[in-house]
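Entry, Tuesday afternoon. Goal for today is a structural model of the target with zinc ion bound, before we commit to ordering more compound. Inputs were pasted exactly as handed over by J.K., no edits. I checked the ligand SMILES twice against the vendor sheet because last time a stereocentre got dropped in transcription.
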Amino acid sequence: MTILPDLSDLIIEQVSVTNGVTVTVRAASPTACCPCCGTICQRVHSHYTRMLRDLPASGRPVHLKVDVRRFFCQESTCRRKIFAERFPSLTLPRVKFTLRLQEALREMGFELGGEAGARLGKRLSYPGSPDTILRLVKQDQLPTTPAPRVVGIDDWSWKRGLRYGTLICNLEDNKPIDVLPDRSVQTVSAWFEKRPSVEIVSRDRSSEYAAAISKGAPQALQVADVWHVAKNLTESVQTLLARGPGRNTAYWAAYRQCQGKCQKRWNPCWNKKGVLLALVASN
Ligand SMILES: [Zn+2]
């Protein structure tokens, strides 16, 4: 990381150091390219000063004071008669931060969020309000993902007890794919209709999700997620035990007799797990 950003197409005219560092620069080229028609222009209309914030240097804030020229566009058919020169290697139009400061704030936003990122930035002399940091995060390009084949679907709360959305994850790389605003059949089925690559869907016991998947991805195999398999098993055992010994007396008697020491692997009295599975199978 250099102290100053890329100023290869600029001329440094002055550097002043007080509580902060101020670097005065201007463009090196006598001409500028019209952003509308691309014509190279050299007739200067006027000047103005643009202030940019950059990464801090040794804890001191750094300002770039840029002399910006306005040019006449010499292309008669161009709708822009006057334009301001741009500095694509330094910043974007109508932005007060350099590109590398924007990138730093964006990274802080991804790691900490808006409020915490702004608090840390203030201590480190990084300017940027929570709203600015979140706006930079939202402007970032989303990574492209391969067509999902095995997905998991579950609800999550925008506001607990009041409003729920749907979270969809790719179970092959364990990464979230999408967040849907609600968990209605219409919304969820529309998502699956756009993704015919889905072959397997892991879900909870929601009848709405079952209907949505059947409607949007009829080719997909629906399976219960691990948590609900365990839940189904627990409920089956509880239901069975609530009935009393009755029809399962033989299993319990066998288990008590061998004390779990039976060496017949598939005998239900072989161990507690065997007894458990036998009880569920007989339910
Ligand atoms: Zn033009």
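The radius of gyration is 33 Å.
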